[in-house]
Amino acid sequence: MEFSPNNKIVKRCLQGQGLEENGRSGDASELFLQAWNEASQDFEKFIAAHCVSRTQRDIAEKLQWLETALQYAVKINDDSVASAFPFLYSSIAKCHEGLGDSVRAAESHALASSFKKPPSDQGPFYHGTKANLQAGDLLTPGGVSNYQADLIMNHIYFTALISGAGLAAALAKGDGEERVYVVEPTGSFENDPNVTNQRFPGNLTRSYRSEAPLRIVGEVTDWLRQTPEEREKWRAKLAANKGQIIN
């Protein structure tokens, strides 16, 4: 199952996180529990359990929900959750520390370190833009950010989810046609730190960046495009986001 902001469980969790940010942790907790009760797939249960853990004040309860999230992540065990293991084990280690169990804390810290490695995602990979390009062309770092007008980007960004590339195309600067290209990294790449471990554990959107160029190998034409209303909602969210871009 792919991560999608249109999934009803993800929507509830995002709504709950918005309540958290506004100091309404009690209301957020209710939404997270509702998401957990409505979750029907392992991926949804993994996300919901992690969100429930966020609002637990009792350390033992928080640990239980984190271990539940980990249990479902292990069951899924694919590129969509591989990057979540370091975060989950580190969070579990902190709970053991809070409970005074130094042995289990050390074990969990060691497990967190053992999972910290470069992304193993094999793609295929996609890049969304409004530029008209051809197979063989190279996409290189150094462009202006779509989300901060005065920022020159040190990396080129891409994703393994067509929906994510389609959203990037919709939000890209320019008046050209929205395009999603199939791309091939020409060098090493890393998880995009602007999304990794921010609202959800790991890099569920399978978003990456590289200092090396991306080579265009094809184009996708049949992705689900954003409606004008959806585009405006995303632009409003980005305009309201005061977070610093990690460049």
How would you describe this structure to a colleague?
- The protein is an alpha+beta fold.
- It has 2 domains: 8-114, Tetratricopeptide repeat domain (Serine Threonine Protein Phosphatase 5, Tetratricopeptide repeat, Alpha Horseshoe); 125-240, ADP-ribosylation fold (Alpha-Beta Barrel).
- The chain has helices at 8-21, 25-38, 42-54, 59-76, 85-98, 102-114, 162-171, 228-240, and strands spanning 125-129, 138-139, 156-159, 179-185, 190-191, 207-210, 214-220.
Features of the shown structure:
single chain, 247 residues, alpha+beta, Serine Threonine Protein Phosphatase 5, Tetratricopeptide repeat, ADP-ribosylation fold, four-stranded antiparallel sheet, 13% strand, globular
Describe this structure in a few short sentences.
This protein has 247 residues and is α+β, with helices and mostly antiparallel strands. Helices cover 44% and strands 13% of the residues.
H-E order: HHHHHHEEEHEEEEH
| Number of strand segments | 7
The unreliable regions are none
Number of helices: 8
**Strand order in space, largest sheet:** 1-4-7-2
Q: Tell me the CATH superfamily of the largest domain.
A: Rifampin ADP-ribosyltransferase domain
CATH topology of the largest domain: ADP-ribosylation fold
Largest sheet: 4 strands, antiparallel
In what range is the share of β-strand residues?
5-15%
Structural class: alpha+beta
Give the termini separation.
29 Å
Query: Mind telling me which CATH architecture of the largest domain this is?
Result: Alpha-Beta Barrel
CATH class of the largest domain: Alpha Beta
Q: What is the typical, i.e. mean, pLDDT?
A: 91
* Radius of gyration based on Cα positions: 19 Å
Silhouette:
globular
Number of domains: 2
Q: Give the % helix.
A: 40-55%
